[in-house]
Design goal:
The chain is α/β, with parallel strands linked by helices and about 120 residues long. It has two helices and eight strands; from the N terminus they run βαββββαβββ. It has a single domain, classed as 2,3-Dihydroxybiphenyl 1,2-Dioxygenase, domain 1.
Length: about 120
C-alpha cells in the first residue's frame, strides 16, 4: 500500500496555485476547480480542490533537508510565517505557515527521526 496524494480545500484557486508555485512545487494539472502538483524531489503529489466555505483541520507537511535556507528564500519572496524554524521536542525542526485559504502547512526536517525516532515501536 502507498499513499497517493493529499487534497487540500481552497476558496480561491488562482491564489492557491500561485502560493504553492511560489513554494517551489511543480503544477501538473490546472483547471478552474482542481490543481495538482508534484514535489520537486521524489514522486509525491498533492492537489487543491475549489470548495467555497471549506473548513480546515488537516495539516500538510513538506520535508526539506535545507529547511532554514528554504524558509529564508520563501521569506525573500514575501511568504509570511507563523513560526520560523524551531527545534521540537519530538526531534523535528519545523516552520509553520498558512496558505491563502487558511490550510496549515509545516515545513520541516526530521532526518532519521522521521521514520526511526528513539521511541519507534518494533
Amino acid at each position: 500500500m502507498n499513499l497517493n496524494q493529499v487534497t487540500l480545500p481552497v476558496t480561491d484557486m488562482p491564489k492557491g496555485v500561485s502560493f504553492y508555485q511560489a513554494l517551489g512545487f511543480n503544477l501538473i494539472v490546472d483547471t478552474p476547480h482542481y490543481a495538482r502538483f508534484e514535489c520537486p524531489e521524489g514522486e509525491a503529489t498533492f492537489s487543491l480542490v475549489l470548495e467555497e466555505g471549506a473548513e480546515h483541520g488537516a495539516v500538510i507537511y513538506f520535508e526539506h533537508q535545507a529547511l532554514d535556507t528554504w524558509v529564508e528564500q520563501l521569506m525573500a519572496k514575501g511568504i509570511e510565517f507563523k513560526q520560523l524554524p524551531t527545534d521540537q521536542t519530538y526531534l523535528w525542526r519545523e516552520a509553520i505557515l498558512f496558505d491563502p485559504s487558511g490550510n496549515k502547512i509545516k515545513l520541516y526536517w526530521a532526518g532519521e527521526n522521521r521514520l526511526n525516532p528513539p521511541w519507534r515501536v518494533n
